[in-house]
Amino acid sequence: MNDNDVLLQVKNLTVTLPGKSGQKVRLLNRLEFDLKAGQIVCLVGRSGSGKTMTALSLVQEVPSGAVLTGEVRFHGEDLLRLPQEQRNLIRGKRIFTIFQNPMNSFNPSIPMGKQLFSYARSYGQADKSAFYAEMIRILEKLNISEPALRLKQYPFQLSGGMLQRMLIGLAIWTRPEVLIADEPTTALDPGIQKEILQQFRLIRDSCGTAILLITHHFGVVAELADHVLVLQDGTIIEQNDVFSLFDRPEHPYTRALLQASYGEEVVADAAGSEEPDENVSQ
User: Fold this and answer.
1) Where is the ABC transporter domain positioned along the sequence (predicted)?
2) Which of 100, 173, 201, 281 is the most exposed place for a label (fewest CB within 10 A)?
């Protein structure tokens, strides 16, 4: 990959909220990273580190009262400075987002198929029967049983794993250039998790999509990531290709996260690769 492959470029991205006594609370601090075509980037960090806020910021969905500054460039054009109408043409179609709780993405009183087709129609799909036929084929590949029946059902009649796969199916139909997925496998059983992760590879491989996958699980990182961003208290404290990050984590926070996932030997190996500090007393 080279610089010409960059689809989304984030520069100096900062989010602040007004705090007590007029002081500002900084939720994100000068984030900078790129997403390239066909690349899977994992954003990792503990709960509260700012991972979901990063996803919200990229699609300009920050909480009321928050101030969002910096640049989010899509094909070189800063999304933060585009008129709302132009942003709406990009979000959802060219940049697709899957958030943590799939139930929140659907109206519980409308059948699934009707909701999915309503989305597709907003981006130019006019033939309902053709859309349903294509979605059924996609959902079959996602191992959803009786997909025609599922499209007639309501969201509350489907499991969390099915709803998540419905969103992934919609992403496959959409063929986005950038896919942002925030903890897409949270609270799902391991078998469903593995299926969903395989579908992200399918989207990447079939569409050349750049994927930002937000997770706290280093097993997911090891399985999918090309590049890794480590977030602590709203700041990216380390970023590297996945092999270098696992073999030679540079920051103590990264080593602590790896230790929590894989045990003491990771930290011992990383510490053994460092130069000794002559100022430390023996």
Assistant:
1) 8-258
2) 281
Instruction: Tell me if 107 is assigned to some domain.
Output: yes
The domain spanning residue 128 has which CATH number?
A: 3.40.50.300
Count of domains forming the chain? 1
For the chain, percent of residues with pLDDT exceeding 70 = 91
Residue 277 lies in a domain: no
pLDDT in tens, 188-204: 777 777 888 888 888 89
Higher pLDDT among residues 275 and 193, named by residue: 193
SS3 11: strand
- 3-state DSSP of 194-252: HHHHHHHHHHHHHHCCEEEEEECCHHHHHHHCCEEEEEECCEEEEEEEHHHHHHCCCCH
Query: Domain residues for 148?
Result: 3-18+27-272
Longest dimension (CA), the chain: 75
Over residues 52-103, the pLDDT tens digits come to 999 999 998 888 889 999 999 999 999 999 998 888 889 888 999 998 778 8
Alpha-carbon gap, residue 271 to 258, rounded angstroms: 13
d(CA 28, CA 30): 7
Q: Is residue 281 part of a domain?
A: no
